[in-house]
Amino acid sequence: MHELSLMNNLLTDAIAAANGAPLRALKVRVGPLSGVVIESLQFAFDALTPGTPAEGARLDIEETAPLFHCPHCQTSYTTPVGNYQCPACLATDGELRGGCELDLISIEVPDHV
Amino acid sequence: MCDHCGCGHPHDHSHEHNHNHDHSHEHSHNHGDGHDHAHAHAPSEPMRTIDVRKSAMAQNQRHADQNRGWFRAKGLTAFNLLSSPGAGKTALLEATLKHLLPHAAAIVGDLQTENDAIRLRASGAQAVQITTGATCHLDAHMVLHALEKITTDGLKFLFIENVGNLVCPASYDLGEHRRVVLLSVTEGEDKPLKYPVIFHHADLVLITKCDLAEAVGFQREDALKNIRQVAPRAKILELSVKTGAGMDAWFAWLAG
Lengths: 113, 256
Ligand SMILES: Nc1nc2c(ncn2[C@@H]2O[C@H](COP(=O)(O)OP(=O)(O)OP(=O)(O)O)[C@@H](O)[C@H]2O)c(=O)[nH]1
Ligand SMILES: [Mg+2]
Ligand SMILES: [Zn+2]
Fold this sequence. Notes:
The structure holds two protein chains of two kinds.
Chain A: H1 3-18, E1 25-30, H2 38-48, E2 58-63, E3 67-69, E4 76-78, E5 95-98, E6 102-110
Parallel strand pairs in A: 1-2
Antiparallel strand pairs in A: 1-6, 3-4, 3-5
Helix pairs in contact in A: 1-2
Chain B: E1 27-31, E2 47-55, H1 58-74, E3 77-82, H2 89-100, E4 104-110, H3 115-121, E5 127-131, H4 140-147, E6 157-161, E7 178-184, H5 191-194, H6 196-200, E8 204-208, H7 213-216, H8 220-230, E9 235-238, H9 247-255
Parallel strand pairs in B: 3-6, 3-7, 4-5, 4-6, 7-8, 8-9
């Protein structure tokens, strides 16, 4: 359950960015190689938000695919987890360029605050 | 109590990294707020979006960078050992520390007990135990403080035995140079397919307890194929700490 501490980091950043405003939504990007379970992230969010400015906010999760760059044919490609073959030249030693992220992308707050 | 890692100042975000990922995302879905709230807001309420772009791993990354700097300053190569519980990390380190004496030391993480550090110290090397309590992985901050207890004179290798767990430790960069994932022959050939993330980040996959392969009907070719599928860039070695088979190749890899 390391999702609890990671969600705590995201919430701390979100609340700081809201600068006193109540949070209505958080947009979080989760890479499939981040090692994070999305259901656990949602669970942590529900457990941590009551009593904070993020209480009742919506958690929008955007899942990415692993992004590779092929050193042989210079193709950039995304793949499902567990199949890392370059679609152009079939090499399997692509360099990982994305898919490990767990980022707070943006927040929504009421416009009038 | 902790002046060089900032852990006394949990609200200081002034030097966090901002990670910007601009690649495309295949599918986006919305996990709505599945609970009632007391102060329900009107759907028509005008909203303002504020860009944040901060990684949840930023703080760990900062501590990992500090560890990396420390390893560099001390001329150490650091290895992070990961596996499911009981795959043989401590047994491998007992033999490895003994072989590399006096140039190797270990940090070992467990939920509870000093047992692994006590076993490792019997080899004659320094070993620092981290007990994580409820935490299922080591993070860079725990390692940062364990490093304070290591005497580095003459040291060349530092091994970090992670908490036995194939999920959570994968997310945490400890500042290591190399990641080693152990897969024992007794735990099934399809472990790499079930836990692809931890294997994907491995520099070396060690198949351990090979002396038991025959007894448990280990399907070697299947295991190799599965590892290559999820960790195409990793080197694979096979060994048995019990018989000593394959240990020379492991020592050679460490030295290379
Ligand atoms: N037959 C055989 N048994 C081994 C070998 N390596 C380790 N074992 C046994 O496997 C068991 C677990 O080994 P450990 O080294 O404690 O495993 P670990 O990965 O450190 O375990 P945790 O720290 O609890 O995750 C012990 O009983 C070891 O004696 C081996 O090469 N062959
Ligand atoms: Mg152990
Ligand atoms: Zn290619």
